[in-house]
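pinned: reference chain
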Amino acid sequence: MPPQRSRLQAWFTRVCSCVIVWACVAQLFALGPIWFSPRISAPAPSTSRFFFFGNSWFPNFSLRSDSLHLPAPPSRLPSRTYRSNGYLQVSCNGGLNQMRSAICDMVTVAYLLNLTLVIPELDKTSFWADPSDFDDIFDVRHFIDSLRGEVHITQRLPKRFSREASNNILTMPPKSWSDEKYYLHQILPLFKKFKVIRFNKTDARLANNGLPVELQKLRCRVNYQALKFTPQIEALGKKLIDILRGRGAFLALHLRYEMDMLSFSGCTHGCSKEEAEELKRMRYAHRWWKEKEIDSADKRLKGLCPLTPEETSLILQALGFDSSTQIYIASGETYGSARRLSALRAAFPRLVRKEMLLGREDLKQFQNHSSQMAALDYMVSIASDVFIPTFNGNMAKVVEGHRRYLGFRKSIILDRKKLVELLDMYENKTLTWDGFVSAVRLAHERTLGQPACRKVVLDKPKEEDFFYANPHECLKNAIECH
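pinned: its structure tokens
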């Protein structure tokens, strides 16, 4: 072969090789964001069952101060101009997060029925007796402006609808777990006679499942975009989060071992006889708490009681958290105070709460305002590296859903029925510590806040998964559900 032809072939081969190499590099850059995206899709079954326990619960990078910024809201419904069919007043009942989910539902009902919503009234008669109004907790202007074009919202009822003009106002509780047909066919016609309807109970008045997707997404926009805390609460919450992050990664523990919960549920495991009697007296004193005589032991075995601080300590250790773990207690005063926290504090000396991290002046304006204090705990719980509730109450559910919305952040939802069984076996020495650890971890490898379909139970809405714990229709990278 002539030398010149041989050199041409060699040159051509090098050129082709370079082209192929650079094409591969370009493909790698193009596909990299897809391969290495931090978004979480439906997880494959774990081959190393316990890889996520211990120190690997916490990220090996520091969280940025702007990580509380929310993702883009679910797609907005088309702006519309409508003639209002009347005014909807709502009186929310319960604690902060019970009222929060109710507000989201009532905005959705107002949208569906073309009503003007009056800024909601907050419960001041519950166990906490919090005098806070809506504008003491939430940014009213932001609430109204962020929903403008979808729902008419006014700060107060026009003067012409005075309390004396009762002929124009109907007060009633809507039916629990109702779909859009109930509101369209039974509530909307009432506005032909009454110009104002006042719902005096609003918790759990909208169905979890079976609603049009646009209504479900509106519920999410209200919850994650429109309901913003006041600037004062936001500023102090961020200060609290910065202090915690300055000390390293942290776990937010919603330790719902509080007097009101124990009294309401009748759960007295670990309490003295005197404490059990005190809780019973409180239960009888609250006439709207319908259940009075309660078998505490039976309820605990069914998984219907909050875990005690002592039980919680063992569970956290079994999950792989050690004495170096920073734990923030995101709840009110523990029943039994320091005595009942002694075992938990002995195992986890870096146990803190907001009163330990903030100065007295910082919290002065929030004292005796339980909902505003709960708002601080809510912010910390959303921002934490791991969230663990010891009872599936309203805060636990709403925080779980919010963390799912922010990218399926780690939330360990404890199976209390299984845990009580394991705890009793360990306590009576029929189960070794190693066996206890293995069983606890096995029971929770699928309950970490990862993508999952919301449970549907036909004709039994109370047994379904709560919409705000898993707002599936609003979540990015959610697995497909039918």
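why pinned: The longest strand covers residues 250-254. Residues 75 and 152 are 19 Å apart (CA to CA).
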